[in-house]
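sorry for the late reply, my laptop died twice this morning and i had to redo everyting from scratch. anyway the thing you sent over, i finally got around to it. pasting the sequence first so we're on the same page, its 231 residues, then the predicted structure underneath. double check i copied it right bc i was rushing
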Amino acid sequence: MITYLTSRGIPQEQADQFYKYFQLLTDWNTRMNLTAITEEREVADKHFLDCAGIFSCGKIADGASVIDVGAGAGFPSLPMKILNPTLDVTMLDSLQKRVGFLDAVIDELGLSGIRAVHARAEDGARQADLREQFDVCVARAVANLATLAELCLPFVKKGGYFIAMKGPVADQEVEEGKRAIQLLGGKVEEVCSYRIPDTDLDHRLVVVKKVSQTSPKYPRKAPKPSREPLK
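ok and here's the structure:
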């Protein structure tokens, strides 16, 4: 994996960190469900290099404060931190076991300026130390864009960005989610495309700018954002 990543332009030190991350991921995955992808090359392509694609939109400045909502096994936030150590990263997840895994990766890789927080997005977004405190919120989740916007935009400062990692058919979600995004204080600025070289991975980044504060009534309590997306 290390040689493969360096051949893709990843510096040696970061490639070493990615390999340690891979070892922890596959070890912990034998005890809890973190990923269905476990083969080295696939993890490199479909997790690590895919997450690196989030920088292609050019919206994540050095030193930016970033929150990953529904961080899971740390995608995309841990690869982002490895590739740009200046980022101040918060990883939010609703399952304590996953937070334990994230803490183990942070410790093993010797990372600073990154933390894992145990909370549902619906609850975390109402905490004063998290609400509208971040330059960028990222999400690599299967929920539809309207649901993600309700869970993510409350964390973003006015003038900041919510970036959703999506598949190649994101345009329909964008069209269907525009009204919800507007209600939440956002505006779709662009949809960026990126590909992983030598693969068939063709993904989109939906870039939403926070143009006004989110109403205090959002996000609604779980499970409404997922069961009844805003329209």
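The two ends are 44 Å apart (CA to CA).
thats about all i looked at so far, will dig more tmrw
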